[in-house]
Write a structure and sequence with these properties.
heterodimer, A: 313 residues, mainly alpha, MetI-like fold, 12 helices, 78% helix, 0% strand, globular, B: 523 residues, alpha+beta, 6-stranded mixed β-sheet, 16 helices, 21 strands
Chain lengths: 313, 523
């Protein structure tokens, strides 16, 4: 097991190398010029060239990539072209809100979606099942920003229960932190809840047809024990897989949610950087997201062993 | 009873203190993200606004756009107009406590003169700058320039921010890292989170002038201990935050949201910036079809500035100004020379006939549109629709602003990735005088994107620098506008007057231009 983990962690190195090459090349080829953005309309072409040179953007692809890659190996993601701040500092400033949002959404989604899926499977064909599936379709169909606006209108503007926007760091108290994150988490969690609930229902339906479930029933096991101990544990592998895949959904959804609720997270940092062509920031954030995603996949692979003892690495 | 009161007071104390702190903090939602901190290095309006918070200037423009002494106690110009002697007010200090000296001003002017278009004019005219004493210095010119005070006091990018000498010695093409300023607010760099929060604190050592506040001139009294710029990229969120009392002031409410805000009894919609932004339709002079002046002129009979303004800012006529000539309506040089080309009866048929007679052969018109900036996108949509109806072969190309900025620097033909036309806006202060009016320049390869070549416009611009008084400036402006209708380097589309929204408890907002944070207080 330990050897497997080490192997997988080492395998992330070439993956990250490829991601780095891809991200750098894509940005190199993409249209847009930060020097022109900085110089503004009053600048002469010579001014733009001078700015480009001062930013090192006039050098060849290989030189720029080599320098950037060498710095990454030392843990240095470079400086933002616009703010002149280290990219690591900017990421550090923004990581807590995004992590908080994702973790809370994850907790919320799993704690709602899994029981929903289990109950829908148990009550297959009933009104409850149809209601759960209807909710799932709604969750998939309604965009995150629409849910966000509706929630903000009802719970902030009309009822005045929660703030419209912003983020309070966890260090300033659990409840202020939670207060700012409830609406964004619900908005972001909608599609995630729908995804997990559907897969849970489908997997549970399959598992509930198995012989050992009939045996458990024959032995007189109660319904909740059958559903949540016998069946759910055996249905867990695909559910955990979907939860892992859904992390990518969360990362994408966080960009929109952070904008709608003015949460200063990594999603907004990414969008701002893309619009301004702040290359070092884009590269740093995309690398971070890729790394997180690789780690999440590793964690999911390891989690399989907890749910299915037959799986060994 | 007494014990209960004591306990109550103890419990309430932190909340009372918190409320007092909140009352001394102004929560402001700026128009965009403050990405850079150097108003000489960056031309972004938001960076200039940041500059006005933390830097003072030698001169300041009043609401009539006339330069008045600001950091300068006074100035003298020699009889031949070649030597300007500027004396500094007593007691001026930087945020680190150091006194403002002549050497700081000279270094700041020199750095600014490398980047700003009027500063570059100073660069070409400058013989020498010399510190006579610690608070008195001279600027010696090769030729007289009456507009120097205006140039040193204009707030449009790039502003001549007075920085400590050690900071101002930074290469003007490299961003400063030290935000020690000279203005009424100091910047808390340690609390700065780009894209989210910028914090300013009242600078206790700032020495305000005695005269009443008048735009960028006069007193700059500060009534808040702290101003927080909270970036909200989503207009609906900013609107909700203002309604929910989570923000005090929003700089650029979306026109669509104005009716909602107007209905809120605690919110005021106000026209703070009278000089607005001039809508501009710009052509590429290097390639067909707009390298042909007759094709450019053919558009004029069909241009309906009201239609452009309705699309840009909505149908409330108080939010725009038409007709607009080449210079900002309401500014001293605005005039009606030849304006009948835009104010006469609008006729699509006349435009079609003019286009047919122009020699246009159906060449593709690559019309660029910045899809992430709704106002500009709407202007582009109206322009493209008009061109299509006239019979142009329009290829409408939507892209983000970052791409458009790079694309419009391309001088290649349309088939090689070049462009034909685009719409944008220029800050009213920039296009109020010929010196900084880039759309009206005719300096060919060095001109703003489009690269028109017009010796007549350049000669008049040079003459404006030498103009001795306002009457002479006005005469030049009239001639320039007359030429503009003939050569059509751009077409003015109207003046967009973006309103601001703030809580009714906020009073004393200084009118004139961008959001300013002196004079303003909480009632």
């Amino acid at each position: 097991m330990f050897a497997y983990v080490v192997r997988r962690v080492l395998a992330t190195i070439p993956v990250m190398g490829l991601v780095a090459l891809f991200v750098f090349s894509l940005l190199y080829l993409a249209p847009g010029d930060p020097a022109a953005v900085i110089a503004g309309d009053q600048a002469t072409p010579q001014d733009v060239e001078r700015i480009r040179a001062s930013l090192g953007l006039d050098r060849s692809y290989l030189v720029r990539f080599g320098e950037w890659f060498f710095r990454i190996l030392q843990g240095d993601l470079g400086l933002s072209i616009f703010t002149n701040l280290p990219v690591t500092t900017m990421i550090a400033q923004r990581i807590e809100p995004t992590l908080s949002l994702m973790i809370l959404t994850l907790i919320l989604a799993i704690s709602i979606a899994v029981p929903m899926g289990v109950i829908a499977a148990w009550k297959q064909g009933t009104l409850i099942d149809r209601a759960v599936m209807g909710f799932a379709v709604l969750g998939f169909s309604v965009p995150v920003f629409v849910v966000g606006y509706v929630l903000a209108y009802i719970f902030a503007l009309e009822l005045d229960w929660l703030p419209v926007q912003g983020y309070t760091p966890f260090a300033r108290g659990f409840f202020p932190w939670l207060q700012n994150l409830i609406l964004p988490s619900i908005a972001l969690g909608g599609v995630y809840i729908a995804l997990i609930a559907r897969i849970t229902r489908a997997t549970m339906l399959e598992v509930l047809q198995q012989d050992y479930i009939r045996t458990a029933r024959a032995k007189g096991a109660n319904q909740s024990s059958i559903l949540f101990v016998h069946a759910l544990k055996n249905a867990a592998v695909p559910i955990v897989t979907v939860i892992g895949i859904g992390i990518a959904l969360l990362i994408g959804g966080a960009v929109v949610t952070e904008s709608v609720f003015a949460i200063p997270g990594l999603g907004r940092l990414t969008v701002d950087a893309i619009l301004r062509r702040d290359y070092p920031v884009i590269q740093g954030v995309v690398l971070l997201f890729s790394f997180v995603y690789v780690l999440v996949n590793l964690a999911i692979d390891l989690a399989y062993t907890l749910f299915d003892p037959r799986i060994r690495y | 009873m007494r014990r209960r009161a004591l306990i109550a007071a103890g419990v309430a104390a932190p909340f009372v203190a918190s409320a007092q702190v909140a009352a001394r903090t102004l929560r402001f939602v700026p128009q965009s993200n403050l990405a850079s901190l150097d108003p000489v290095w960056s031309t972004a309006v938001i960076v200039r606004n940041h500059g006005l918070m933390i830097y003072d200037m030698l001169f300041g423009l009043d609401a009539a756009l006339q330069p008045r002494h600001q950091m300068a106690e006074g100035h003298e110009v020699s009889a031949d107009g070649l030597t300007w002697t500027i004396g500094l007010r007593e007691g001026l200090r930087f945020h680190d406590g150091a006194p403002v000296r002549s050497a700081d001003c000279i270094a700041s002017i020199l750095r600014w003169s490398k980047r700003d278009v009027l500063g570059q004019r100073l660069g070409t005219l400058l013989d020498e700058m010399r510190a006579e004493t610690k608070t008195r210095f001279t600027i010696r010119l090769k030729r007289p320039w009456a507009g120097l005070a205006w140039a040193l006091g204009k707030p449009s990018a790039n502003m001549c921010a007075i920085m400590p000498e050690r900071v101002a010695q930074t290469d003007p093409f490299i961003q400063i890292t030290d935000t020690t300023g000279s203005g009424p607010y100091s910047f808390r760099r340690d609390l700065f989170r780009p894209g989210d929060l910028a914090v300013y604190e009242r600078f206790a050592g700032y020495r305000s002038r005695e005269e009443p506040s008048d735009f960028l001139a006069g007193a700059k009294p500060v009534h808040f201990d702290r101003v927080e710029w909270r970036v909200m990229p989503d207009p609906a969120t900013a609107s909700a935050a203002l309604q929910n009392n989570e923000a005090d002031w929003w700089e650029n409410p979306l026109p669509d949201l104005l009716p909602v805000l107007r209905r809120h009894r605690e919110i005021v919609i106000d026209q703070v910036n009278a000089f607005g932004n001039l809508g501009v339709l710009r052509f590429n002079f290097l390639h067909p079809p707009f390298n042909n002046p007759a094709v450019r002129r053919a558009l004029l009979p069909a241009i309906d500035q009201r239609a452009f303004m309705d699309a840009a800012i909505g149908t409330d006529t108080a939010l725009s100004r038409v007709p607009s000539g080449c210079f900002t309506p309401g500014s001293p040089l605005a005039n009606d020379e030849g304006l009948s080309v835009l104010t006469g009866p609008r006729s699509l048929d006349a435009a079609k006939a003019a286009l047919a007679a122009s020699g246009y052969r159906g060449e593709r018109v690559a019309m660029m549109s910045a899809s992430d900036l709704p106002g500009l996108q709407n202007l582009s949509e109206v322009a493209a629709d008009l061109m299509r109806r006239m019979g142009f072969n329009v290829d409408f190309q939507a892209m983000d602003w970052g791409t458009q900025i790079q694309r419009r620097a391309s001088r290649l033909g349309v088939d090689q990735g070049g462009w034909s036309a685009f719409c944008t806006t220029w800050e009213g202060l920039d296009v109020s005088v010929p010196g900084s009016h880039q759309p009206l320049r005719g300096n060919g390869a060095n001109a703003w994107s489009g690269w028109p070549e017009s010796p007549r416009l350049e000669a008049l611009r040079d003459a404006w620098f030498e103009a001795s008084d306002l009457a002479a400036e006005r005469a030049i402006a009239r001639q320039m506008q007359a030429i503009a209708w003939d050569e059509v380097p751009f077409i003015p589309l109207g003046l967009v007057l973006q309103p601001q929204a703030y809580r009714r408890s906020i009073t004393g907002v200084v009118k004139g231009g961008p959001a300013l944070f002196w004079g303003v207080r909480r009632a």
